[in-house]
Design goal:
The chain is of the alpha/beta class. It folds into 2 domains: 5-58, no CATH class; 67-176, 3-Layer(aba) Sandwich (Trna Endonuclease, Chain: A, domain 1), CATH 3.40.1350. It contains 9 helices and 5 strands; from the N terminus they run ααααααβββαβαβα. A 5-stranded mixed sheet has the order 1-2-3-4-5, with helices on both faces. Strand 2 (99-103) and strand 3 form a beta hairpin. Helix 7 runs parallel beside helix 8.
């Protein structure tokens, strides 16, 4: 069977119950398509995206040089682009939240922490209080850095979502997942 556009689409839509490599050979798929479906595709995909996350944090001078307020606006712009409704909280008296976002009937109360050191318990405690104050469904702490083990433990106990710097590119997926 020769290569044509009809069979090309079929190569990518084979049911999972078939051995794709054998099917691809039977359909006359070129070698590169066969290689695409080889066992290491998922591994290469993960490695590529892990590297992109690292590059985002380590090589993104914009995030590293932002003020706290710029970081909040940056996070709001990411959420806005993905269909969230966002608003900032007052500069003083924010009750532990920086951003309120909503989508799909859920309200996300977000504490944004742009900091040079790992984020500890205080941010988690603040977002727990803010989630209650703003009657939110989900409490979230987002940082350009990482979280201390204690903060991770406290967040788990209080159903708070933690998003570290490497996870910012996946923030919307994490929140909607």
């Amino acid at each position: 069977m020769g290569i044509n556009e009809d069979t090309f689409d079929d190569w990518f839509n084979l049911p999972n119950k078939y051995n794709k490599k054998l099917e691809l050979r039977a359909w006359g798929a070129p070698h590169w398509v066969e290689k695409l479906f080889s066992g290491d595709l998922e591994k290469r995909f993960k490695e590529y995206h892990d590297k992109r996350k690292e590059d985002f944090v380590e090589n993104n001078p914009d995030v590293l040089n932002m003020t706290g307020e710029e970081f909040e606006k940056y996070l709001m712009s990411i959420l806005d682009l993905k269909g969230f409704s966002t608003s900032g909280t007052p500069r003083t008296g924010d009750q532990g939240a920086d951003v309120i976002a909503s989508k799909g009937g859920k309200t996300y109360v977000i504490q944004a922490k742009r900091h040079s050191k790992p984020i500890g318990n205080k941010a988690v405690q603040e977002v727990v209080a803010a989630r209650n104050y703003y009657k939110g469904d989900v409490g979230v702490v987002v940082t350009n850095n990482t979280f201390t083990p204690s903060a991770k433990s406290l967040a788990k106990r209080n159903d708070v979502v933690l998003i570290s710097g490497k996870e910012i590119p996946l923030m919307v997926n994490i929140l909607e997942g």
